[in-house]
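Q: Hi! First time doing this. I have a protein sequence and I read that you can turn it into a structure. Is that right? Here it is:
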Amino acid sequence: MQEPLLTVLVGIIALAVLAQSVALLLISLGLKRLSARLEVVSGDLAKKVDALAKSAEETFAGIKSVVARAEAIRENLLQTSEVIRNRAVDLDGLLQDVTKSARLQVAEVQYFLESSTRKIEETFDLVQKSIIEPIRELGALLVGFKAGLDVFLGRRRRPVDRFQHDEEMFI
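A: Yes, that's right. Below is the predicted 3D structure, encoded as structure tokens:
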């Protein structure tokens, strides 16, 4: 009578462990997809920042050239140098705006990575507390219950042939 009950309990535990394995596998696959996506996003961001830096260097090289020429002809063409100076100020403002924008985007990516990492850690903690620990406790409870029954009934595990032998005696 205890064997079918034990078999059912072992089956339930096996199904729970199987469900846990599937859940962990799905979490693992989700993390791999997230990691791949983050790599693509960070790669694209790095390319954009590199392109922006190259563009800024080219722009600064152009500005230096214009300023050098403006110094040479400043005494003769005061109005022309004022126009160039105004354009340099506008360009500097533009570069500051672009730099601020790039910094904000980097901060957003960093926040996204930190919050994603925190959420993943919280998910693992939640899985540990709500799935793995209860299963472990249930297993310990079942082992204790079985041991208690064995002690209460005053017997230890019997081999299967001994049960058959006892049944044959009563027939």
